[in-house]
Amino acid sequence: MKRTLSEYLFERFCDERKVTCSRIPEAASRMPDYLMFPGTTPVVVEVKEIERNKEESESDRLLEKRGWGNPTGGTPGGRIRAKIVSSSGQIKARTRGIYPSILVVFDERGEVPNLEGYSVRVAMYGLEQINIAVPPAGQGSPYSLGMSYGPKRKMTPEHNTSISAIAPMIMASRDQIMLWVFHNKFAKVPLPLGLLAPYGIRQFQLGEAAPGRTADWVEISP
């Protein structure tokens, strides 16, 4: 089967970083794309490509024709959230609760908001919301209780625990492919934090939340 651009770039990335990577043969049932071997630890990898939707394609057409496109939007993290849903089953079937896994997500245009850290975070843990307390009538004004993660979360202690991490892959230039790894704190089999460090891959985990705030990514030192 012909490789997609995202698969070609992932293979090239592994080759450039000297990470052993082998494609999983296609079967009747859907399976993840690759086994990656950083050191001796097998890691199941599924590569997903974010394609331009109709709204974005029309904006691209107008940009080329007249010099500016239409505004495009959507729910923060929505495109990544969809990739989590579509890949979770096949990743779970391959990891079998034994192996760690990475969902690699690629957008050819490398655009915000599809691949930046905020979108990954709210796709995994839910949209941010401000909680408001409303006192009984005549007993004061509404006041904020702080922020928390709310709806549309895809990573919980019971959901999508077979995905150890999500890794946006960005083609920074013709000669530079970057992979940033965001660890899932609810993973049944976590990706060892030191596993990818020798390969110059940036990694992030969810830090501690300050009072009244949501937890943010903290970069893991090599």
Q: How many DSSP E strands?
A: 10
Radius of gyration: 19 Å
Number of helices: 4
Gap between N and C termini: 37 Å
Strand line-up in the sheet with most strands: 1-2-3-4-7-8-9-10
Shape descriptor = globular
Order of helices and strands: HEEEHHEHEEEEEE
Residues in β-strands, percent: 25-35%
Structural class by secondary-structure content: alpha/beta
- Total of domains: 1
Largest sheet: 8 strands, mixed
Mean pLDDT: 85
The percent range for helix content is 10-25%
Low-confidence stretches: none
Write a short abstract of this structure.
The chain is α/β, with parallel strands linked by helices.
If you had to describe this structure to a student in words, what would you say it looks like?
The protein is of the alpha/beta class. The chain has one domain. It contains four helices and ten strands. It has helices at residues 5-17, 54-66, 78-95, 117-125; strands spanning 20-23, 34-37, 43-50, 101-107, 128-133, 143-149, 165-173, 176-183, 202-206, 217-219. The strands form two sheets. It has an eight-stranded mixed β-sheet with strand order 1-2-3-4-7-8-9-10, sandwiched between helices. Strands 5-6 form a two-stranded antiparallel sheet. The model has no long low-confidence stretch (mean pLDDT 85).
